[in-house]
Amino acid sequence: MDYQNICKKLIQPLPSKYQDVIANRFGLGGGTKTTLQALGNKYNITRERVRQIQNRALSLIKQTNKKIIEEAAKEIEYVLKKEGGIKREDILLEKVDKENANEVFFLLHLADPFYRGGGNEKIHFVWSIGKEKVDEAEQFITDIIEQLEDIGEPVSLVDLDIPKNLDRKWINSVIEASKTIQFTRDDLVGLYFWPEVNPKYIRDKAYYVLKREGKPLHFVDIAKKINEIFFQNDKRAQTNVKTVHNELIKDERFVLIGRGLYALSEWGYQPGFTKEIIARVLKEAGKPLSFEEIKNKVLLQRKIKENTIISVLSNNRNIFLRTEDGKYYLKDE
User: In percent, how much of the chain has pLDDT > 70?
Assistant: First the structure.
């Protein structure tokens, strides 16, 4: 549909000043949108007077071009319904006609089925078919935020308490319009400021990678996956192994559990050298343990060889003492 030509025809019968105000306010014909103040300065009138002219011009267009507007609105309404009856403004304009987004924006203001809402701390500007859809969207966002705050991590939509009668397209469009809720790259839902949802720094990207993989990784592999996931289309922005390794060392969320192998502390891994892990195991046991018992517990915390544990016990006999039956205990115990 030729939206640009339609808009030209709609404003042509208007007085010249009305035409100029509408064309500039909406950025028609490839122009940029002009503020009320700028137009007021141009005509030496107040901002409020410009607003009155704009509203009067829109009213005249609606009164005399009902059929043209209805016909032009059909395609926009089709796209909007296809997206669940509500859509974030910038995305809707791009979907309908990216090259003539300003003309589509203008027509949205003329056609009766469309309602513009949002533009607040909760939701971006949206267009919907009726005001009630915007009210429902804002309430839905509030409910989902409360649930996510209680859960504390990204989850699938099926893990949330969402009424079964809600259309998935409507849900997707509402989340897309929310300023607080966001989909992850894995189609989970979380709060936008969570590092696993919107990882800003390299350390957050490393955290995202480990959470996604669900298992310990070598720092070289973490760096590779960061570049694959976040910088695949921007080679110049890609990170290097040294930077990733430095971030892993500095951040308490990560624990070195073997030669270059990192895990998340939230998985139950504890920081420290092998000697400290063995000492912790013995202290928590509160009694002497056999080598086999020590080994099994240490290997839950570290990806190391059995000989490493033997070596640490042998080289620290002033700390790890042995009973007559060969079990180990801490000197202080």
Answer: 100
Residue of 163, 144, 162 lying closest to 154 (CA atoms):
144
Q: What was the pLDDT predicted at 180?
A: 96
Question: Which CATH number applies to 3-115: 3.60.21.10, 1.10.10.10, 1.20.58.2140, 2.60.120.10?
Answer: 1.10.10.10
Per-residue pLDDT, 232:
87
Average pLDDT over residues 143-156: 95
Instruction: Tell whether the torsion through CA atoms of 9, 15, 20 and 25 is positive or negative.
Output: negative
In the block, residue with structure tokens 């009067």: 56
Could you say which DSSP state residue 155 is in? B
CATH of domain 274-330: 1.10.10.10
Mean model confidence pLDDT for the chain: 94
Cα–Cα distance between 28 and 21 in angstroms, integer?
10
Alpha helices, DSSP H, located in 44-130: 47-64, 66-82, 89-97, 101-110
